[in-house]
Design goal:
This protein has 333 residues and is α/β, with parallel strands linked by helices. It is built from 14 helices and six strands.
Length: 333
C-alpha cells in the first residue's frame, strides 16, 4: 500500500488533494479506480447520477459486490428511485464525505461520469436566478403540448452548449435552462461561465479515461449485452411492480426507459436493445464533450494505470503535509 503522508484538514495554505477519475460510460472507470484506490488505501466517492439509486443495479452498471467489498464506496445506493436528488444535494453530501475522509488521512477518489456532479463538488453551485411562476408555467404548458424534443430544439437555438450536455428526453433540465434564458435573457451556460464555480475547496487531480471511438463503442455494445444477460428487463419489471411509475426521472434514464418502452408495447425487445446501444453511444459523446472542455483534465487510456499511479503519488506530495502518517481508511470486513 502507498501510505498517505498528510493530514488534509488544518492546512494553512494549500487545499487538500483529491483524485477525480472521469470519462465516458463503458470506458472502464470503475476497474481503473478500484485498483488505484487499493494502491493508495483510498476510498471511492461515486459521481454517477444513477448509481446513487437503490434497486437500480444492472442498468446503472454499479460496482460489483466484489469491488465494493474490496474498496469502500460512498454515494452508491444513497437514495430511493422516487427521491429528488440533484447537483446541489450531491455537492452537500459529497463534500461531507470528502471532508470526513480527509480528516482520517484518507485519499478520496471521486469516480463517475456525471460531469455536473463533479463540478458541483469541486467548485460549488452557481446561485440560480429566481424564476417567476408565470415563466415556469408557460414553458411547462409548452413542453406538455409540444414534447421534450421540440423544447430541446428550442434550447439548441438559444444555448447550443447546454443542448449538447442535456439529453433530448431530460425535460427537467431542458426546462430549467429555458427558464433561466426566458427570465434573464442570458443562457445558463453563460451564467455558469461567469460564476466560474468559484467555491474551489480541494486541489483535484483530474484523470479522464478515454479510448479510440470504435473501441469505446464496442465496449458499450458489450456492456449493454451483458446488462441484458444479467437481467435488466427483469430489474425494470421489478421496479414497476414495486410501484415506481415510469414517469420518475430515475425511470426515464438510459436502459430503464428503453425496457419500459418494450414492456408498454412501443417497440420490440430487439428494437429496444438497438436503441439502448445507440443512446449509450450518444451519451458517451456528450460526456466527452463536457469533460474535454475542462483543460485541467489529463487524458489516459484504461491500460495506463502505472502512469496514473505516478501522477497520484506526485499529487499527494504536492498537497498539504504534516508529520502524521495516514492510512486511516481501513477496509470493509
Amino acid at each position: 500500500m502507498e501510505a498517505l503522508q498528510y493530514v488534509a484538514v488544518n492546512a494553512p495554505k494549500k487545499k487538500p488533494p483529491i483524485v477525480v477519475i472521469c470519462g465516458p460510460t463503458g470506458v472502464g472507470k470503475t476497474d481503473f479506480a478500484v485498483e488505484l484506490a487499493a494502491a493508495f488505501d483510498g476510498e471511492i466517492l461515486g459521481a454517477d447520477s444513477m448509481q446513487l439509486y437503490r434497486r437500480m443495479d444492472i442498468g446503472t452498471a454499479k460496482p460489483s459486490p466484489a469491488q465494493r467489498s474490496r474498496i469502500r464506496h460512498h454515494l452508491v445506493d444513497a437514495a430511493d428511485p422516487d427521491e429528488e436528488f440533484d447537483a446541489a444535494r450531491y455537492a452537500r453530501e459529497a463534500r461531507a464525505v470528502v471532508d470526513t475522509l480527509l480528516e482520517r488521512g484518507c485519499l478520496p477518489f471521486v469516480v463517475g461520469g456525471t460531469g455536473l456532479y463533479i463540478t458541483a463538488l469541486l467548485r460549488g453551485i452557481f446561485p440560480a436566478p429566481r424564476i417567476e411562476p408565470a415563466v415556469r408555467d408557460r414553458l411547462a404548458r409548452r413542453a406538455e403540448a409540444d414534447g421534450s424534443p421540440a423544447m430541446h430544439q428550442r434550447l439548441a437555438e438559444v444555448d447550443p452548449e447546454a443542448a449538447v450536455r442535456i439529453h433530448p428526453n431530460d425535460t427537467f433540465r431542458i426546462l430549467r435552462a429555458l427558464e433561466v434564458f426566458e427570465q434573464t435573457g442570458r443562457t445558463i451556460t453563460e451564467l455558469h461561465r461567469k460564476h466560474r464555480f468559484a467555491d474551489v475547496r480541494y486541489h483535484a487531480l483530474k484523470i479522464g479515461l478515454t479510448a479510440d471511438r470504435e473501441a469505446l463503442y464496442r465496449r458499450i455494445d458489450r456492456r449493454v449485452d451483458r446488462m441484458m444477460a444479467d437481467g435488466l428487463l427483469e430489474e425494470v419489471r421489478g421496479l414497476l411492480a414495486k410501484g415506481y411509475p415510469p414517469s420518475l426521472k430515475s425511470m426515464q434514464s438510459l436502459g430503464y426507459r428503453h425496457m419500459i418502452d418494450f414492456l408498454q408495447g412501443r417497440c420490440t425487445l430487439e428494437e429496444a436493445v438497438i436503441q439502448l446501444k445507440r443512446d449509450h453511444r450518444r451519451y458517451a459523446k456528450r460526456q466527452l464533450t463536457w469533460f474535454r472542455a475542462d483543460k485541467e483534465t489529463v487524458w489516459l487510456g484504461p491500460e495506463e494505470e502505472d502512469r496514473a499511479r505516478e501522477m497520484i503519488r506526485r499529487h499527494i506530495e504536492d498537497g498539504p503535509k504534516s508529520g502524521a502518517v495516514g492510512g486511516g481508511c481501513g477496509r470493509l470486513r
